[in-house]
Structure prediction request, 115 residues.
Amino acid sequence: MSSIPSFKQTVKDVSAQTRRLRETQPDLMTAFSQLATAGTRDGALPHKTRELVALGIAIAGRCDDCIGFHVQTLVKLGITRAELEDVLGTAIYMGGGPSLMYATHALAAFDEFSS
Prediction:
């Protein structure tokens, strides 16, 4: 059995739980949503570049849920496998062996969301 999760299922499950939090913690979740929007919208860097940075941080932070959401968004934004592999290379450079392990998760997520 693989230790790499189904990223489509992960994103679905986390989304369901965050919807529940929106009901019980609306102020917090609205603020988080605004933060996410502000942190990824086009500015000096385009949205796609900012999502690539977020993915690198997700890999370094060893957050499979975050990897799932950011790769899903990047696929929707038209990322190529070569672009993904470049950002993975930088994440591995900065995070060493543990980042290498989570970079493989990002590749699996890309394959899953691209299919």
